[in-house]
Amino acid sequence: MIDYKYKFSELLTLNFDFGKLKFLNIINLNREELEIIRNWRNKDEIRKWMYTDHIITLEEHFN
User: Between the chain's N and C termini, which has fewer beta carbons within 10 Å?
Assistant: First the structure.
């Protein structure tokens, strides 16, 4: 049996840094960080690739 260092649920809360490539946990963000993500998502060059390409409102984003 393999003894893993982390449980899967614990991996969801970690950040990983591989030098030039970083994987950041976006599950437990604070309100300011969530707003940054919403602003990224609402940019034209991002929205055009989304399943729904409408602008996400604050109310929609935080519900």
Answer: N
